[in-house]
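Q: I'm a student working through a structural biology exercise. My instructor gave each of us a protein and asked us to get a predicted structure, then write a short paragraph describing it. Mine is Fumarate reductase. I'm not confident about reading structure output yet, so if you can add a plain explanation after the tokens, that would really help. Here is the sequence I was given:
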Amino acid sequence: MASAVRDGRTVIVVGSGLAGLTAASAALQSNANAVVLLERAAKPGGNSIKASSGINGAPTRFQLQSHPDTAFFSDTVKSAGKRIYSEATLEQTRRKGLIKLLTDSSAAAVDFLANEIGVDLSVVTQLGGHSAARTHRGAGRTPPGADIITRLLGELRQDSRFELKTDSEVIRLLSSSHSPGPAGSSSPPAIIGVEYRSGNELSSVAGPVVFATGGFAGDADGLLAKHRPDLSGLPSTNEPRSGMHRLLTDVGAQLVDMDSVQIHPTGFVDPLSRDSPLKFLAAEMLRGEGGILLHNGRRFVDELDTREHVSRAIMDMEPGSGPLKQWDVQLLLDPGACQTAASHVAFYEWKGLLSRKKVSELDETTRSTLRDYSLAATKQIPDVFGRTSFGHWALTGGHEDDDQEVCIGWVTPVTHFTMGGVAINDKCQVLSSSLDAETEAPVPGLWAAGEITGGIHGDNRLGGSSLLECVVFGRIAGEQAAAEARSN
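A: Happy to help. First, here is the predicted structure for Fumarate reductase. I'll explain a few features afterward.
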């Protein structure tokens, strides 16, 4: 093995998605001596760089609402479902505490990206499960994930204390020997660095560690098969790669909610490659801006209900034929929705995932559905499924709509996000104790942020909160690790 590089005052970040980059930024801002970021892929960005709907925040200066948005916490608790209402009082308190930290810190997270990193977050949309418009993205052509990652990485690369190593896979957390704990027990060993492989060479680096390696929705034959075998055969928006949770459990980390896997209702089905298990996400903001879902030309759900509910409404129907579990559902956007989501629509059209048709070219069932929905969107009748927010839908339901063009694509539910992961506290310390334990037992020298963590989203994550948790908890983890590095 090559000798260890740098010293214990270096902060080590594992994973280069938004959580990892934010942790690195916070560690440098907190006067860490150095930050080494290790990424197993050839390029940085993780799944964050593909995020297309935006980042939640409330209340922010970008929200054009007559009253302050104060319902983010309650919306998140409602979406998280029954796991929040554990019979264990301590567990319930800790879960709600993490949600409160997430939502209370959301405006500061948006400000950090907008003011310090220079990300445009001026467009605000209401996504499914939200009671107000609070999901921020830019007005330009670059999707929010790519814009945030590119700008944040550019900022980091200007700092001589920052070092990014791609094609560098962490294979082991280095720890000290066990030390005596209270009442004669043993506390978890302190983490003092990592061992990683780059090509054929093994190296190590010493220092406190922030783990930000993402979830396991793409680990179809590993963690996903173990914890949710019923999801076998579903396509995914995630690259097929193994989760890195074992490295954390090997040093005593406690896992939570590993069976809680989010199915996103709309992954595009490529007409030229229908049976590909890897799907492009049809961003939730397409529905937020007015888009509707159709089965045999008819709507069947409030498209802005939670992802869990919309996915279930689709999956309760008979799937189509073929080697994959996928359903024959259409996503349709009218000219108003297409225009507002123009940057996304142009990309999806280029990929062959969306196509355009005149309303007059649609079958009669679909045209009838459009007329009814357009009348609801213009407040002439109530929506049959109770939808109250229609984004920028522009069709009116009259004959003048016939010459208008709509955008249509085929979509299906996909595995998308894993709510389960390692248990953390409000300092983002990785815990070797369960959430209902009387006493927290942090693993010394180890923090985590992003999708690798569990206990925050419960049964269902709200759209726009994945980027948010990366920023909120990434900042905390980086600050805490930097303080640990300075004390060495």
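A: Here are two points you could use in your paragraph. Confidence is low (pLDDT under 50) at residues 1-6, 178-185. The two ends are 24 Å apart (CA to CA). It's a good idea to check both against the output above yourself.
Q: Great, thank you!
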